[in-house]
Structure formats: structure tokens, C-alpha cells
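Reopening this ticket.

The earlier resolution said the output was attached, but the attachment link was broken on my side. Pasting everything inline this time so it's all in one place.
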Amino acid sequence: MTSLALKNTRLVAALLAAGAIGGAGVGVLNAVHPGALAAAPAAVASNAAAVVPMAVPDFSRITERYGPAVVNISVTGTTRVSNDWPMAQGEEDAAPNDPFFEFFRRFQQGQRPDGGKSEQEVPTRGQGSGFIVSADGIILTNAHVVRDAKEVTVKLTDRREYRAKVLGADLRTDIAVLRIEANNLPVVTLGKTSELKVGEWVLAIGSPFGFENTVTAGVVSAKGRSLPDDSTVPFIQTDVAVNPGNSGGPLFNTRGEVVGINSQIYSRSGGYQGVSFAIPIDVAEKIKTQIVATGKAEHARLGVAVQEVNQAFADSFKLDRPEGALVSSVEKGGPADKAGLQSGDVIRRVNGQPIVSSGDLPAVIGLAAPGESVKLDIWRQGAATTLTARLGNADEKTGQVTSKQEAPSQGKLGLALRPLKPEEKQQAGLDNGLLVQQASGPSALAGVEAGDVLLSINGVSVKNIEQVRATVAKAEKSVALLIQRGNSKIFVPVNLG
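Inline output:
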């Protein structure tokens, strides 16, 4: 099991799952967590009294009491790989232009009826962490730690080992539940993530690089982080040293309560670089309850694609601040469509809970129950309104995602447009739209390209160029264009200068 990489093309760094060590070996460790953190005297505001410095918690007490409930998890499994027929000795060192390279390749392929191609199972091994939440052997860890595992072994701090059964794993939240046949086991105390504060001290216990029962400490850097992997988890960000093998281990607060499960790191090198993420224990508890009862977890689905509301979009849609989730497309026949949600709507609250960034929405919806009704406070064409949606099941087959709005212009936008021909509409599956023949000026700078189909402006469907010109003429700072490129739809903010 190797660390799981979460790729994001806009980020030089990669989000890496901190959970499993590959069987090829760890190598040399070149970095040590700085660890030394000192409480500084607080600054004094204008008329306010000085903040009293807090003493560093005694982490030894937490470790002594709850450390025995933290376990090391070893995993063995197999993965199928497709590769060429094994090379002759020395061929791996031959350059492609070496006259013997092609000879060896053809000779070996000639010995096989399949032309030298084979698929075989390769053994894999990995390690991670976990913690006991029930004295009768229920253990929480990360789903990626036990993914594709054929055998899972749990090792306690007193060196006892047990074969573990995977009761269930939920890839959406990266939570897995294990059971071992044992009784009277030490257990952790679960806290509430909602009570956790940014800047609060936290402690991690796990098995980084296979070093069992390693303790690291830091502070909570942020809460409710959305990561670029379409996750439904509002992560806790910390600066606690977390490395491969720490995955699935507990994150404790200063009262010795588990507030999160260490899951991922943000790194350029593959090792800890000061930013780590934990799954809130509130989320883990909810998933655990479902898995213990049914063997699986269910998540709700609204049926929309959303994007971030930046200042340009806020100006275009006349929002008082750049917050919310901008609906770029709506799944045809899905829960949002049935509730009346439209492309161009900005979702600002769900059941009274604020949606500040677009990532807040999937986190809230994904942790709701299928069939549950939610109240959506939205902003539509300059006015607030409320809708009620009955959520679907995320595991159900989804329908086609389509937009309900359409259209834009030239002049200040820098676009040359023409109406779509009937055959073009049929091919694109659209009722209306204007084809971008040429993009320059503000629109080109915003990323609009020739061949795009423009569907709406500021959330209002536009059916002809005259409407576009009129809308742009009334705009002050920017406009939001909904474009379709291929099968994808996205809002593009265009600064008019």
C-alpha cells in the first residue's frame, strides 16, 4: 500500500494520503519535525487587556492514558499488473538504440503465445494506524489503509496481535471500520469537532514510517477545509507532523478526546512539510454507525455542479460579498432540478448553515441522509429566495447534467458571436446558444476561446446578440458568462475594466 496522491493541476504540491507504507522500503529519513513550540506573550490591543499566555499541555498524560488504545495496522494484499514478459538479464540496462535491445525483446516475445504481454498478481504490503473505540474490538482507521487488503493484522501496544475483519469502508469519507475478536480492550474518548477551536493544541499518535506509537503535536490551523478531490469531508487542517503510516491514527485535543482521524498531507516531497489534514470525528462517528449496522455508508446527492464565488462573480450577480456556491449546471431530473434550482443560482445556506465556499456544499449535502429534505437559501437574479429539495442517493445512477440557462456579446466583451445552427443545437443538446467565433480582449483574458458556446450572462438566458449587448451595457465592473466547451459547462468571470 503506497501513499495515495491526490492530484490537482493548479497546485505544484500534491495532497498525499498519509496512510500506508509500500513494501519496497522507506529509505533514509532526512527531516525531523521541529516540534519546539513556545507560547509567546500576547499582543495588547488598543484598549484591551493583554491575553494571558497558555502553558503547553502535558502531552505525556494523554499519551500514557490513551496511547494503549492506538494500534498499528499491517496490511497484505495483491494487485494485478500488466507488463511485458520479463527481460533477460542485463536487458534492463540496455539502451533502446543498443543493437541487442531489440533482439532480446523479439526473442522473448517469440517464446510466448501472447506476444510477450502478461498480467500477474503482485503482492503488496502496507502499514497504517487506527484506534479502538469499543472495548469489544471496534477500530476506526482510514479506508485507504485497508483498501484491496486480503489480510489485516492489528498490533496493540502490549505487542499482542489479532487478525482483523474489515466490517466496511467508505471511500467518500475515507473511513473504515475493523473488528478484532477481543474483550476488555483500552478505548479512546471521543470528543466533538464542533467544539474544536483554531489555534488549539492537538496531539497525534500513530506509526509513521512503521515507527509504532510515535507522538507528535501541533495546533489546529483551520477547520472546514475543502480539498481538490471532490471530497465530502470538511477537513481539520493542522501543523502536526503526519507522515506515511500515520493515516488512520487519532488526533487528540488537550482534554485527551479524539477530535479527528489523521488522513492526508500537503507536500511537494511526499513527506510532511507543515500541513496535514484530519477527518472530523463527528463525520467518522456517523459513518461508523452506518457501517456497523449495515456494512456500508450512504450519502445524499443534490444533483448540481458548483464553483467558487469570487469577487468578479459577486459583482456580476450583485452579491454583498463573495460567498456561496455558484450553480453551473443542474442534473436533469435530479433532486435540484425537481426543487426548481437553476444554473446561475448561488446557494448561500443549507438548513440555516452558511455556505461560504463552494466546497462547503458537498460536505454538507454528502453527510446528509438520502431522502432527507433540506431548505436552500439561494440568490437568484439579484434577489433572495428559498427552495426545498428532497435529496437523492449518491450511489444511484445519476442523470445527465444539463444547464437551464443560455447566451453573450461583442464590443466590450471582445467576442464575435453568431447564433447556433439547428444541427449544431441538436449535436450539442441545446435549445439556444451563441457560438464564439473569435475571442479577444477581456473575454480572451478570462479564458473564453473560439468554439465555445455561450449560454447565459449573469445567470440570465440570452437568445440573441442584441440582448447580450444590452446586458453588457448595463454592467458596471464585470459579467459572468456561462460557457459550454465540449460536454462541460462553467461560469467564467469577465472583468470589463
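Reporter confirms the inline version is readable. The chain has three domains: 1-23+54-297, 300-402, 411-495. Confidence is low (pLDDT under 50) at residues 1-15, 21-49, 85-116, 398-410.
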